[in-house]
Specification:
With 86 residues, this protein is mostly helical. It has one domain. 80% of the residues lie in helices and 0% in strands. The chain is built from 5 helices and no strands. The termini are far apart. The N terminus is likely disordered. Bound molecules: zinc ion (ZN). The site of zinc ion (ZN) has 7 residues, from helix 1 and helix 4. Zinc ion binds next to helix 1 and helix 4. Pfam families: zf-HC2. This is Mycothiol system anti-sigma-R factor. It comes from Tessaracoccus oleiagri.
């Protein structure tokens, strides 16, 4: 049986969009693919919500990484290693 209902096509698009959410948010996909996802988000509220949640988490992680500084002990250890090697 190869009956393709319209609902199934929509589901496939949602699954495809959601599996690529990270690549999309990190800008790791071709423009054509990103455009296709953008089009889907405008047409699909559910995916738009999911992407907004992912984008918020993504932004929080980025900020957290920026706020993290290497501990002083690590910095001095690296410095002393360099001095020993030269
Ligand atoms: Zn969708």
């Amino acid at each position: 049986m190869s009956e393709a209902a319209h609902g199934h096509d929509e589901m496939d698009e949602c699954v495809a969009a959601l599996t690529q959410v990270h690549a999309f948010l990190h800008g790791e996909m071709p423009d054509a693919d990103a455009d296709a996802i953008r089009h889907h988000l405008h047409a699909c509220e559910r995916c738009m919500e999911n992407f907004e949640i992912e984008a918020t988490i993504n932004e929080m992680i980025k900020r957290a990484h920026r706020a993290v500084h290497p501990p002083e002990t690590l910095v001095s250890r690296v410095m002393s290693l360099r001095i020993k090697r030269t």
